[in-house]
Design brief:
Blueprint (H helix, E strand, L loop, with lengths): L1 E4 L5 E7 L3 E6 L19 E7 L17 H15 L4 E6 L2 H11 L4 E7 L12 H9 L7 H12 L19 H9 L5 H7 L7 H8 L6 E6 L7 H8 L5 E6 L6 H4 L1 H12 L1
Parallel strand pairs: 3-4, 3-5, 5-6, 6-7, 7-8
Antiparallel strand pairs: 1-2, 2-4
Helix pairs in contact: 1-2, 3-4
Length: 275
Amino acid sequence: MTTFRAPDGTRLAHRTYGDGAPLLCVPGGPVDSRYLGELGGLSGRHRLIVPDLRGTGGSAVPEDASSYRCDRLVDDIEALRAHLGLARTDLLAHSAGANIATQYAARFPQHVGRLALITPSTRSVGIEITGETRRELAELRRGEPWYPAASAALEAITRGAGGDREAVNPFFYGRWDDAAREHCAASRPENAEAVAGFGAEGAFEPDATRAAIAAHGAPVLLLAGEFDLNSPPRAVAEYAALFPDATLVVQPGAGHYPWIDDADRFRAAVSEFLA
């Protein structure tokens, strides 16, 4: 693990896996980036540079809690790029990290090569995901043994009536097996302040971001999981339509973590795009 200083002096950490052309990988959460692992073996073809967002993993807790805001985390990614001496780099982002990466591409297009958004959150571009859309996806899993409890919990959460959030975890994986359970346990956020601050008021300006990415000339991949309740394929397709040069891939049988569900298929799709 290597550290560097953010513009406000906060000590930030990043990990590197593999060799080859650099690929800067922005995690979601905010959560310790170790949950990304080596992204299904992408490190066999690329040098994965994986930062821990401030207040997570090996990165320090900032003095100013307002710096957890998504738009301000863009400055940390730019500081990492400069620290690495990369004039231009391919960028991959997962889940909530896509909000950071999209705003980064809007502000610093000259530093972005290809952009891969994996099961992306859509908050930065203002795409709403309805409860009905999530219910329709949930129905596809009706034959699973865990479905009754998970469906009841999802319905309660959708209605704003509480609900057991642990019970809905199986919906985010293509297979709810031991590997998925282990990964799920390692993917839980530990810094509640960072999670709350990420989407604080002012974090997103969808109209401005949409206008900027409408002029984004570099190729973009948006990869959705067939079963992903967090980033449904329909919403990801709408997201893809905002870019002038976008490729949409829906990975069959995958949830929110497609490299866990089918590493070979995930690696092939992303590698083909980056090539």
